[in-house]
Design a protein that fits this description.
Bound molecules: zinc ion
Structural class: mainly alpha
Number of strands: 2
Helix content: over 70%
Distance between the termini: 91 Å
Largest sheet: 2 strands, antiparallel
Order of helices and strands: EEHHHH
């Protein structure tokens, strides 16, 4: 049995749950290399760092605004680099959002109609009783 301890075995992405092979240089990689997941990871990292350094953040924030600024710029920089991709992503989501809203409105109208029917029934009942 020759079972080498190979770090490059498939693992599941923490974000999307898909299997992926970690990068040769980053055997501890937890997120697959899709842009969407990398972006999520970036957000997570920022959040995690902030949570583990709340005082630092507060301190820095009270000291100057540059940390926040740097953060924003990093995010913007990322967006600039992946502008095309994000555009596609947004387009895809717009469609998904539209679909969601359509469904929502359908349900909303149905509920409203049911409510109106109920009201009419009630009014009808009153009239019938004189
Ligand atoms: Zn992923």
């Amino acid at each position: 049995m020759e079972k080498k301890n190979n770090p490059r075995t498939e693992r599941k992405c923490k974000v999307c749950g898909k299997s992926f092979i970690p990068n040769k240089y980053r055997p501890n990689q937890e997120v697959c290399s899709s842009l969407e997941c990398q972006y999520q990871r970036q957000l997570e990292n920022m959040k995690a760092w902030r949570e583990s350094n709340p005082n630092y953040f507060k301190y820095k924030e009270s000291q100057d605004k540059s940390w926040k600024q740097a953060c924003r710029e990093r995010s913007l920089e990322w967006r600039r680099k992946h502008k095309e991709y994000l555009q596609l992503y947004r387009e895809a989501n717009k469609e998904r959002h539209r679909e969601y809203m359509r469904e929502y409105m359908r349900k909303y109208r149905k509920r409203k109609k049911e409510q109106q029917d109920k009201n009419r029934e009630q009014r009808g009942g009153e009239n019938a009783g004189e």
